[in-house]
Design a protein that fits this description.
four-stranded antiparallel sheet, Arc Repressor Mutant, subunit A, 37% helix, elongated, 154 residues
Amino acid sequence: MSDLDKLDRAILGTLQADGRMPIARLAETVGLSETPCARRLKRLEQEGYIERYRAMLSRRRLGYGVLAYVSVRCAVHDRSLADRFEREVCAIERILSCHNVAGTADYILMVVARDLDDYGTFMRDELRSLPGVTAVESALSLRAVKSEGRLPLP
């Protein structure tokens, strides 16, 4: 992070808000001409500060009315079983994220479903049958207060 100057941070902050911003507008926003701005942007991408660009889709418009945060506990903490669990989780599209965590749960998942019936079927048929799973606890999101926050840039 020490390699980033004020202009680099301005570019990163601006792109977090609008990743599709044309280079001309980005340059104007951060106070550079297009060529130096494009060079800085390319360097930030090459150095890994920008991992990727993506569109944020509306889960509701796509028919996913349920968003659940799921705590998963595993009885056996065997590396090969954990690897199998993680591979299978990564192959399930409706699991948006999976984090191996410390605490009472082993993993926290973010899952989408069309409705509660769909979520119940998913829990019964897929989630509870994943390798090593012994307990599952769900917290259903009622509404998003803050979502996909921007990373702070010191």
